[in-house]
User: What shape does this take?
Amino acid sequence: MRIRISKRNSELIDQLTTLYNFKYDGIIARVGFCLSLQLNKKFELLDDTQIGSDGKDWRDERALFGVSADNKSYYAIYKAMLDQHYNQILTEDDFVKLFKRHLDFGLEKINTELQDKNITGGFHISYLMKIVKNGLELINETNPFIPQSDELNEIKSYENLIQISLGKDEKDQEVKLRINDLNEFDSCNIAIAGMVGSGKTELVKDLLYQISTQSKNELKFIFFDYKGEGSPDRLKTFFDGTGSKMVDLKKGPMGLNPLSFVNLNDKRTQEFNIKSFVDFVCTIATQLGARQKHILQTVITDCFDQQGGLQTLLPDSYKNSHPTLADIFEALQNYYENNGIAPDTLYSIISDLATNIFSVNSNPDSKKIYKQSLYINLPIELSDTLRQLCVFLTLKYLLAEFSSTNDTEPTADRIKPLRYVIVVDEAHVYLKNKNASKALEDILRVLRSKGVVVIMLTQGVEDYKTKNFDFSSQIKIPVCLNINNKDYKLIESFVGTPRSKQKLQEAIGKLEPQKGITNIIEPQIIKINQFWKTISDKK
Assistant: This one.
């Protein structure tokens, strides 16, 4: 990355580097940038204000951002800081623009504070240490970027071993995986790639059946069927076998308030949570513009303020009460009417979310969807936008709920307790969306330690490696079924480098419907389990 700063900022960096006797001029640049964030300074992305580029040309990002022990740039850390500060994934151009503005603000702030001060008496040192001290104190504060609660959320764990069978090898021996045995896998996440007709849906149904049977239905799951092909009659055997039920959005909404993750006790965190929700809706619904985004944030903020007032006046009736999407839509209707705005895309999306996707009843536990196993049928009659919003607002809620729990601690024999299973079908739909894929990345990273198993299904192995993130790096149990693109390099990257290149090539050559490849010990072809056959054999 190349960043060229203004002449004014170059001069300030030279002056301050000399004053502090820093060895590298990138140090004071980093201090200035961080001071700006520390003061919670924010700039509008749409603001056309430009910082000059007539000064120092930083051609080596390591000199500007610093380096790790292995000589790698810390750019990723600074990128993450700005992403979190603005609660969105910034493009490289946006990052450069905002970095320069924060750098300019921070350097000018330092220069102003040091003007006419007793430098010989060490004022500049005291001032610098004050910045450091304030930063350390902020680290110890409640992190507004992860939803917090006053107390840890108690979610029951299943503490015994879960051993699943993928199918049988060529010697007719079962291929079993001890998925929560840390002696074998440090992650329970599973990735399955297979084209239409490969048998991947029946395989994952079989895995869920095994998990439910072994745990006596203690370990719950949620299955997002993006294709919307499920029917109660056809899936009855699966529902009976797993103790699960269908939520068919063709017939009625989910019993969930996706705003229930918003903090009710800390105003600063609440504001961030609301902005996070709004930004998320707008990144999925890309047709929404800046004006609509502002309206949505205003309406939601007003609803939470009103709810807070009611909670103060009537604490027994409104304790821990969040506005619902129905409340938001009603407020949005009033806003449009009062301001003479005709119904538009935002109006339509919030209406659909409030009436067709999400609802809550009077039951205080209705939002705790993880207390039961659910099959979410997403009908194709719903737009791609609404289906994606349904999935990711639900995932956002689950991320908040499980983030507020303790990490699950392994038993003496290193069995990791499990709390929940999330199945995302047709995951390539989300992985192609940079903003949506970031949500999946967070799910994989954060919930790994919380005892949550994530199973993703795509049509090809190449789907897992995006421009911004290699999802296969977070997956320790990959299963490659019959796919269109049988390129060796792609499959090798997905399943991992094999002990024997020849065995992997041979296995690839044998891929066909209902067969797959694993590379847990060494590459092998297996005849994968199919739920319909498992049930048929039991009769």
Residues 62 and 69 are 12 Å apart (CA to CA). The first helix runs from residue 7 to 20. The chain has 19 helices and 15 strands. The mean pLDDT is 86.
